[in-house]
Amino acid sequence: MDEIGYAVGETESTRIIVDSTLKSNWKVTAGKQEWITVLECVNADGGSLPPMIIFKAQNTNTAWIPTNTPPNWYFSTSNSGWTSNSHGFEWICKVFEPESRKISGDQPRLLIMDGHSSHITGSLIAFCIEKEIDLLILPPHCSHLLQPLNVGVYGPMKRYHAQEVDRYSRAGIQRIQRSDWVQLIQKIRGKGLTCQNIKSGWKGAGLNPFSPRQVLNNLPTPLLPPPSTPNTPANPEDLDLSLLNSSPPNDIELRQANKVFNSALSANNLPTSPVQRDMQSELPIRLKALNAENAILRKELQEYKELLETRKKRKNGKRIKLKGEFVFSTEEVLKIIEEAEQTLLPK
């Protein structure tokens, strides 16, 4: 188990196609809007548990959660958008314990976590002992080497997140709403949280199959000074003096070369008029530019249509601030919305 933070609106450095006639070209991005944290958990078989998404807010709002969100996803809030001691305990109680028990049954389970204070608390350790969950805490500052999520999963997910934010920017949407982001993260998890990436992370961390050498080989090695070699003077007999002895071409050789060049031009039937030469050289360039511009416009139009369809499908219901609980599942949120709508119906 580990957390991943998303800076909504920020993208990575990418190559873009621009108009070469402009003096300055800029990539328009939305910029950082807020920080959203997601708790993820994967197993050695390549499977994953439902996520817990933490927004920066006082209370969870029903308008943030689209109706097509998986029912076993969980949502919570914090003042900073980061995890806290309560989030770690709520996650293991509501997500890990019931979801992992569906897979393991009554067999003991092993949970690997880092030693961050928001993850490891006395209440969490006591809960693990009660539920027969073996807790393995990684050494500090080693998550990039020993945590399967950091080794093989979070890198691709960050890249896919940047690509999706770029897609919104190209469509002219500079403000990504939280309901849009929840749908966006569903697509990102489908691309990045794959069985292949998860198993690659476990293998890269040396945990499954167990291979300490896999990690030791990735440790930085101390830089050693290069071995000193004595400076020996060059032997004049080893130098190649053929270039120094060669002479530049004379007039006869230059005339022969010019004759060969002119005969090659005449054989290709090249246009002699300056206007014809300019047209022949410029026409392919202009055609390529127009084709590229047309392809870009078609791509932007398609992306804009997809985003519009996504927003049209969203159900606009009453915005309800969820209070009284710290963590809500999608199923609980939809049930609360349904009950609120029933109370508003005319009798």
TrEMBL record:
InterPro entries according to UniProt: CenT-Element_Derived, DDE_SF_endonuclease_dom
- Species of origin reads Monilinia fructigena
Which superkingdom, per the lineage?
Answer: Eukaryota
Positions the record marks as coiled coil are: 287-314
Sequence segments annotated as region (Disordered):
217-238
* A single GO molecular function term of this UniProt record: DNA binding
Question: What are the annotated GO cellular component locations?
Answer: nucleus
Domain DDE-1: from-to ranges: 32-202
What's the protein name? DDE-1 domain-containing protein
Coiled coil as a keyword of this entry, yes or no, is yes
Q: Does the keyword Coiled coil apply?
A: yes
Q: Which PANTHER family match?
A: POGO TRANSPOSABLE ELEMENT WITH KRAB DOMAIN, TRANSPOSON
Keyword tags? Coiled coil
